[in-house]
Design goal:
The complex is a heterodimer. By secondary structure, chain A is mostly helical. Chain A folds into two domains: 86 residues, no CATH class; 228 residues, Orthogonal Bundle (MetI-like fold), CATH 1.10.3720. In chain A, helix 5 packs parallel to helix 15, helix 7 crosses helix 8 and helix 14 crosses helix 15. By secondary structure, chain B is mostly helical. Chain B folds into two domains: 72 residues, no CATH class; 210 residues, MetI-like (MetI-like fold, Orthogonal Bundle). Helices cover 53% and strands 11% of the residues of chain B. Chain B has 14 helices and seven strands. In chain B, a hairpin with a 4-residue loop joins strand 3 and strand 4. In chain B, helix 3 crosses helix 5 and helix 5 crosses helix 11. Classes of the chains: A mainly alpha, B mainly alpha. The interface between A and B is large, with 50 and 41 residues.
Chain lengths: 332, 392
């Protein structure tokens, strides 16, 4: 177990390195840099920018260095907890990002929790009542959830939440709580706003999870040990909970790896629509303004979140399921 | 032949005159013959037909893709024709009976008023006037695929009237026509994207599965890295990188290639795992011994074994691409006007006002949902049919 653990950690390091390089290349892909875009914007507003000032700023921001140097500087900085400098906000990235990352994390966590809580009973029910009316309609609703674009669902839910419950539009809390210290009322307000993005981001993942759990459970229910247990007179509920369900539970753990990128993606677009103070809108803006280090650090954070999530789910799976222990190790 | 009524003692030894056919037991009825002699693809087809929902989905998709070819004829208006007097007009209802008598499909003309309290545009139907919808008629001029000019439509608005079956947008453009034209882009995005991802998946997955060893390890690692990126932020980053100076068509291909570049990992994994198992088979060894090159072994001997599976799984990943394009265009990072896709249309419904005041602007989501569902059902059917020898 320890060997597997250590090996898995060691694989993560080069993966994250490559990811950081890719991120940097992608961010650098657009022509020009933040400064040229910024100067163009200033000139469009009728301001004149002297050549010396541009040169000074270029040196100040480190934009005169080669991309490779910039990358290494960024990478070494990240190892020391310094994520670079946001041009747009004129602040270190860590200060700009701090709160938002926490909210993103909270949102992802709540969404995964929601996915599990909803998918679990529905999946079990449709598997034990295969081809019943409820099974068919639940499957259909699941498909609908899969097929509806997230952002539109978000808009509609937002509208109805406003009309029916008077929830304020946009944001993750009522306006008066922004910049307030954490209090119980603020917490309640966050809860009141949190459910829409959670439901919206969760729907697609929930549908997939229900289908997988149903298929797994159906496979298990046909096996002989179930027949044996039933013949011996074990009550149906107890039988279900004690044997086949445990076998069918793997997707819940194995899927964290699949679910996380999906949740993070969904969160990105939904939070743009709902103007949540999470990473999504800021990432979009940073990408459009070529705010290299801000965008890069965001992408890096999100990828690291998924890499670590996958790692955790692999480790949890290896710990819980003796069949796949150790010999799998690194995939080959 | 001796009759039964005679004395049993006199029963003669019976010999049939008919020529003896020792294989008569094994003879097949014509239906069985047809079944057993059927080719693999024919059996897949039969099996696919058994999946009713999948068959209907396939028919629906076929019809939609055919409609792309003749969008100009189907749409009542041209893509860009504006009606400045009918901005944000609600959908008009088509009626058949006027004051108890049958007059055929007709609409009531819209009358426009500005509510001076709320400054909201309000449209009322003038129920006294009847305007008949025209069929097979001359309407807005268009250029058919940019090749030749025409003005023939299946359905046209009434003379000096309007026909906004799904309402109009903020420039007074007919939404139905725009949805019909938008299908062109939205439906092809999936196909082009899947072609890109299919190609990459086949080549890389094939190499990994055939050679194994360090090639396999490298490809696996690459897949692992790409999968650890959250899809949408990566799409956002890549499409933000597309030069602004590109023509709309260039952007279209850029977006589809980006969608494909990230999607191939699942397919490559499937190809790899199948190839790993198949390359140990005798027929593969035989082909190698006879001097076939790796490319030929992979393409001629190994891939056909599970091509049907690949097609099925490719079908299942088209919806993700369509949704991806919709999401990107919605964010303003994907396609841009004047290119019209369903995502571009939906980006008009971006704010809460649209939901509250002009809910019909959200209608382009209906074809998106229908197409995504149809692809999912068809993919399910194809997957079941892909292995016709499997019972059950």
């Amino acid at each position: 177990m320890l060997v597997y653990f250590v090996r898995r950690v060691l694989v993560m390091i080069p993966t994250l390195l490559i990811v950081s390089a890719l991120v940097f290349v992608i961010i650098q892909l657009p022509e020009g840099d933040y400064l040229s875009a910024h100067v163009a914007e200033l000139e469009a507003q009728g301001e004149r920018v002297s050549a010396e000032k541009i040169e000074f700023l270029r040196r100040h921001y480190g934009l005169d260095r080669t991309p490779l140097e910039q990358y290494l500087h960024w990478l070494l900085g990240m190892l020391q907890g310094d994520f670079g400098f946001s041009y747009e906000y004129n602040l270190p990235v860590t200060e700009v990002v701090g709160d938002r990352l926490f909210l993103s994390f909270l949102l992802s966590f709540a969404t995964i929790l929601f996915t599990w809580v909803v998918a679990f009973p529905i999946g079990v029910y449709s598997a034990t009542h295969q081809y019943s009316v409820a099974d068919h309609s639940l499957t259909f609703i699941g498909f609908l959830g899969l097929a509806t674009p997230n952002f539109l669902l978000a808009l509609v839910l937002l509208y109805f939440a406003n009309v029916l419950f008077g929830t304020s539009i946009g944001g993750l809390m009522d306006p008066q709580y922004i910049d307030q210290p954490m209090s119980f009322a603020k917490f309640l307000s966050v809860l009141e706003h949190l459910w829409i993005p959670v439901v919206v981001i969760g729907t697609a993942g929930t549908a997939g999870m229900i289908r997988r759990l149903r298929a797994n459970l159906l496979d298990e229910l046909q096996k002989q040990y179930v027949v044996t247990a039933r013949a011996k007179g074990l009550p149906p509920t107890r039988l279900l909970l004690k044997y086949p369900l445990r076998m069918a539970l793997n997707p819940f753990i194995a899927d964290i790896g699949n679910l996380l990128p999906q949740v993070v993606s969904g969160a990105a677009i939904v939070s743009v629509v709902l103007s949540l103070p999470t990473t999504g809108p800021m990432l979009l803006q940073a990408l459009q303004n070529q705010d290299t280090y801000l965008a890069g650090s965001f992408l890096m954070f999100l990828s690291a979140l998924t890499v670590v999530g996958m790692f955790l789910s692999d480790v949890a799976l290896a710990a819980l399921d003796p069949r796949i222990r150790l010999e799998g190790g690194v995939q080959r | 032949m001796s009759a039964r009524g005679e004395a049993p003692a006199a029963l003669a030894h019976f010999v049939s005159d008919a020529p003896f056919d020792p294989y008569s037991i094994e003879a097949l009825s014509p239906e069985q013959e047809r079944y057993y002699a059927a080719s693999q693809w024919r059996m897949m087809w039969w099996r696919f037909c058994r999946h009713r929902l999948a068959l209907w989905s396939a028919l629906l998709l076929g019809a939609l893709y055919l409609s792309i070819a003749v969008s100009e004829l189907l749409a009542p208006y041209d893509l860009h024709s504006r009606h400045s007097h009918f901005v944000h007009a609600p959908p008009q209802e088509v009626r058949l009976f006027h004051e108890g008598s049958f007059v055929g499909p007709y609409v009531h003309p819209l009358r426009y008023e500005l509510d001076m309290d709320t400054f909201k545009r309000e449209y009322h139907e003038d129920t006294s006037r009847v305007q008949r919808v025209r069929f097979l008629c001359r309407g807005d001029a268009y250029e058919f695929w940019g090749l030749f000019e025409g003005d023939f439509h299946l359905v046209c608005p009434p003379r000096d009237g309007t026909l906004f079956l799904l309402g109009t947008d903020r420039l007074g453009r007919d939404l139905l026509s725009r949805i019909i034209y938008g299908a062109r882009i939205s439906l092809t995005v999936g196909l082009v994207g899947i072609a890109v991802s299919f190609l990459i998946g086949l080549v890389l997955g094939g190499l990994a599965g055939y050679y194994g060893g360090w090639v396999d390890a490298t490809v696996q690692w690459l897949i692992e890295i790409i999968r650890s990126f959250p899809e949408l932020p990566l799409w956002m980053a890549l499409s933000a990188a597309l030069p602004v100076t590109w023509s709309p068509i260039g952007v279209f291909f850029g977006i589809t290639i980006i969608l494909g570049l990230i999607d191939w990992t699942g397919l490559a994994r499937a190809v790899r795992s199948k190839l790993l198992a198949l390359r140990e088979e005798d027929f593969c060894t035989a082909a190698i011994l006879m001097g076939a090159r790796p490319g030929r072994v992979i393409a001629r001997h190994l891939l056909p074994n599970f091509m049907s599976h690949l097609i099925a799984s490719a079908t299942l990943s088209i919806p993700a691409m369509i949704l991806g394009e919709t999401a990107l265009s919605f964010l303003g990072l994907g396609l841009r006007p004047p290119v019209t896709s369903w995502g571009v249309l939906l980006s008009e419904a971006q704010n809460i006002n649209a939901v509250a005041l002009y809910p019909w602007l959200m209608l382009p989501v209906v074809p998106v949902i229908v197409v995504v569902l149809a692809f999912n059902f068809m993919g399910d059917g194809l997957r079941d049919a892909a292995d016709p020898y499997k019972t059950g």
